[in-house]
Structure formats: C-alpha cells, structure tokens
Amino acid sequence: MSLVAQILVAFVALLHLWFLVLEMFLWSTPYGRRAFGHSAEQAEATRVLAANQGLYNGFLAAGLLWGLAPGAPGRGVVTFFLGCVIVAGLYGGFSASRKILLVQALPGVLALAAWLAAG
Fold it and tell me: HSE of 101 in the Cβ direction (CA atoms, 13 Å)?
C-alpha cells in the first residue's frame, strides 16, 4: 500500500478525531463557538446534539485507523469509512455550511483517490 495513501487516510482520521474534540468538549467554549460561528446561547442549546455528532466523527476516525492497522480485515474497511466521510461531508456541505465541503469532503475524496490508486 502506498505511503502517500496511508498518510492521507491517517490525516482524515486525525481530522475526525479533532472534530470529536471540538464537538464533544469545546463546543460551548469561546474557541468552539468561534469555530462554528455560534453565540453562547446557540452553543448551549445545541450542546447535546453536537456531542452526539462528535461521537459519530469518532467512529469514523476509529474505522479508518482500524483499516490502517496491521492485520486489518481488508482494504474494504478503509474504502467504506472514507465513503462515509465523503457522504457526511457532502450532506453537511449542502445542508449546513459550504465550508464542510472543503474541510471534510475534499480530504476524504483525496484520500479515497489515493487509496484506490494504490490498489
């Protein structure tokens, strides 16, 4: 497997771990509110929903890291989880903020292209 593909997949996994931290732990802090453009009231009202979303981002990261681990069950694991990342990024980009297309979907697409090319 190509080192470039593995690095891109690991980068996407790390991004999703960062999203987990932002959404589960920093959502209501000044940093989290600034990152997502929310007022203190909005952040507090949506804190539980954001934490749930962060948990799902953690599952995406876990799946990608599992797929990269020695003895992983196959290339399909990484392909599946990158597909999930891309679909989530597209949905978020069109329903919440176009920025999500660049921050989530694009890295997923680049990692998937490298992963498939490394064959």
Answer: 6
